[in-house]
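We modelled the chain as a single entity of 178 amino acids. Its sequence is:
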Amino acid sequence: MLKDDDCYFPINGNTLTIEQYCKDNFNSFNFSCPHSDFHVWSCHHFEYDTVRDIVLNDPTLSKIDKVLEISHCFIMEISKNSWVGWHFDYPRKGPALNLLLTPSHRSFSLFTETLYDMSNIIECQYKPHQYVLYNTDHIHSIINLDEPRYLFSALFKRGKTNLVWPEAIQLLSNIDYE
């Protein structure tokens, strides 16, 4: 049976630097849809040099980066009043570190074990100012019942083939975020 910690794991580090960065630079972000047949979500991908600047200037991300090198960052926009259907992220590479930038919105990130039995649905419990390690290997869906939903996401260099979920949790649990 699927459990919360199979799907997501809260990280209690400081998020204020990345939140301020996103707020200050929001108007310069270029959201584009990676697939022409999907219109409910789009992403702004950061260039590698910007990723390194973001990581090195954020106290939590810099600590995480020393243990699991962050290779890629983006902000995902989910359109207002929309649903991203059940899926697992492919070819996305392994666990993601997420931060919901619009936590006051009515939106839900849900996990299930199989598309054939919806009797065990887990909701990712995003909290304001809290990173979440997110297991992209499980089937998940996003429902947004409000204005556009924005999520900062960081991916790790080790990726899906070299970083398994239990190891990611263990490595990030051992960091002193104070």
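As a brief sanity check on the tokenised model: The chain has a mean pLDDT of 90. The chain has six helices and ten strands.
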